[in-house]
Amino acid sequence: EELCKRFGTDLNTGLTDAQAAINLEKYGKNALTPPKTTPQWVKYLLQMATPFAVIMWIAAVLCFIGYGLDQSSIDSLVLALALIFVIFATGTFAWYQEKQSGKIMENFTKLLPTMARVIRDGTKRDIDAVELVPGDVVEIISGNKIPADIRIIEQAIFKVDNSSLTGESEPCSRSKDCTDDNPFETKNLAYFSTLAVDGTAKGMVIFTGDHTLIGRIANLASTTVKRKSPIAVEIHHFVLVIGAIALTLGVVFFGVGFKVYGTSDI
Hints:
The chain is an alpha+beta fold. It has helices spanning 2-7, 17-27, 40-47, 51-69, 75-101, 104-110, 163-166, 213-223, 230-261, and strands spanning 115-120, 123-128, 137-141, 149-161, 172-173, 189-190, 195-207.
C-alpha cells in the first residue's frame, strides 16, 4: 500500500498512462547512463607518449640527426624507421588492449532486456523496457529477463538466475513475503537483468535505470579509479631510470664524437 501510494499505482490495473508519463518525467528512462569517456583518438595518442615511447622517439630523432650529418650510410635511417615502427606497433597493441578491457558499460548493456509486458489502465501490453517506470505492474514468465528491480506481488513456483549479479550457480526461489531486512537477501525482490528460469510472477517496478542494483554496480565499475599494481609501479620506475641513463649516455657520446671527429667522421 505504501508503494502504491508513493508511485500512484494500483496492483490490479497498474498505472494510468497519465501517471506513467509523470513518473517517467520524474524518474527518467529505464536505461543505464553511459559514463564519460576519453575519445579513442586521444587514448591512442597517449599511448605514443608513454615514458618508454618518449625514449624511443628521442632515439629515433638522434638517428635522423646522425643520418643528416652523414648520409653515406643508411644504417641510422633504417634504425630510426625501425624505432618508429616499434613505437606504433607497441602503442597500437596497448591501445587495443585498453579498448577491449574498457567495454564495461557495453557488457552490462548486453544483459538488459528489450521488451516487457506491463499492465496499464487495466490492460496488458508489451512495451519497450526503457519506458518502464516505478509503479508499473509487470508480468514475468519463465525465460524472460527481469525488466527492472521489482517487488513480487504474486508468484507461482517462481525462480530466478542471479548468477550475473551474485555469481550464485543455483536458481533462487522468489516469493511475495519479505524474508529478510537486507534487500539483497530477501526473496520478495527480483533484480534488473536477472533471468526467470521457472514459474511465473507479477511484480511492481520499484527501481529503474541507474537506481537499480545492476545500475549501481555498473556505475561503480565504470567510475572506479584504476590503481597501478606494485609491479607496474616498479616497472615504470625502472623504465624511467634506464631511459634517463640511456639518454644521458647517448647525448654525452654524441657530443664527444661530434667534438673529436667533427661532422665528417661521426
